[in-house]
Design a protein that fits this description.
single chain; globular
């Protein structure tokens, strides 16, 4: 089969397909014919430098998610030809991932899919939408009565969270650093856009004096302390992203930095469950949601997909079809 195989860091233009054996099926694993997959920033980081780390099982086929069909169900209970999605659980790091024509994946991280979406649209869902879904409904416990602030609204997770939140009827405020993105966010369905930058908190509180009820913090540690003071008493802040490039906080004092009666949580997408995936897909179908796709590439043009991903200015998910 054709696959991308990494042994050491490389530039995007140095990525190329090679011929490797189709994996042999074993108990507890299923063989999937990969139809499409999304590009994730973590895969860009893997290629740029992380592949050199000792915890990466090299040589490695990257890719933390995919959609496709079961070719060999082994002893899983899946049936041959069944449509599935797979995500995380060590894909593309501990064992070979989805940048290939076939992928051998553990049953625990493969889920059946019933959807009217085509393969490219389905490929934009697994990691991005599950991260948004878990952040909203597992960690933030979002209800239709909530006013949700999404900091980092034009990121892929921010866009997915906007679509999911509107599907349940919540009011959504999205943030962006660029005025030109405000119209894009409004066209997707946000109720309001507030620009990031100086005096953000005071500008927000002018409109919402008591604060909002829920905040999805995708910028991360760079703005976390500010977000904790933008939420109403009894509200919740969920940090899921690190778009701001700050990966930790020095001298963070929970007693002083988390206002009394405000709750701080987070979400990590490595432990998805069948019930959560079913609920997420049901919400997508019932809400008539179509993922926002920035561009679509074929597997033999993977280098161009990674070059676009490096720019990080695109609106929507980058998808690769196989």
């Amino acid at each position: 089969m054709k696959a991308v195989v990494l042994c050491e860091p490389c530039k995007a233009e140095e990525m190329a397909l090679t011929e490797v054996p189709i994996p042999e099926v074993r108990s507890g694993w299923v063989l999937i014919k990969v139809k499409a997959f999304g590009i994730n920033h973590s895969e860009v980081l893997l290629r740029q430098f992380e592949v050199s780390q000792p915890y990466i099982n090299k040589p490695i086929i990257p890719g933390i998610e995919c959609v496709g069909e079961i070719i060999d169900p082994s002893d899983s209970g899946f049936r041959k030809g069944q449509r599935v999605m797979a995500l995380m659980g060590g894909m593309g790091r501990s064992f070979n991932g989805s940048y290939a024509e076939y992928a051998l994946l553990p049953v625990s991280h493969v889920f059946p899919v019933e959807s009217s979406l085509d393969w490219a649209e389905l490929a934009a869902i697994p990691e991005t939408f599950y991260t948004a879904y878990g952040s909203l409904f597992v960690s933030l416990q979002l209800q239709k009565e909530d006013t949700l602030l999404i900091r980092g609204g034009t990121s892929t997770v921010g866009l997915a969270a906007l679509q999911l939140a509107k599907a349940v009827g919540a009011k959504v405020i999205s943030t962006t650093r660029s005025e030109s993105n405000a119209e894009i966010l409004q066209s997707i369905g946000t109720d309001e856009v507030i620009l990031e930058g100086e005096d953000f908190r005071s500008r927000l509180l002018e409109k919402y004096p008591d604060g909002v009820t829920k905040i999805l913090e995708l910028i991360g540690a760079a703005t976390l302390k500010e977000s904790l003071r933008c939420v109403a008493k009894g509200g919740i802040v969920c940090q899921t992203g690190l778009l701001g490039g700050v990966y930790g906080l020095k001298y963070f004092d929970p007693i002083k930095d988390i206002p009394s009666g405000v709750y701080l949580t987070g979400f990590y997408s490595n432990n998805s469950t069948l019930s959560e995936i079913k609920d997420m897909m049901s919400l997508i179908e019932q809400g008539g949601i179509h993922p926002i796709i920035a561009d679509t590439f074929t597997l033999d043009n993977i280098s161009a997909a990674h070059r676009l991903a490096e720019q990080r200015g695109q609106i929507g998910k980058i998808v690769v079809t196989v």
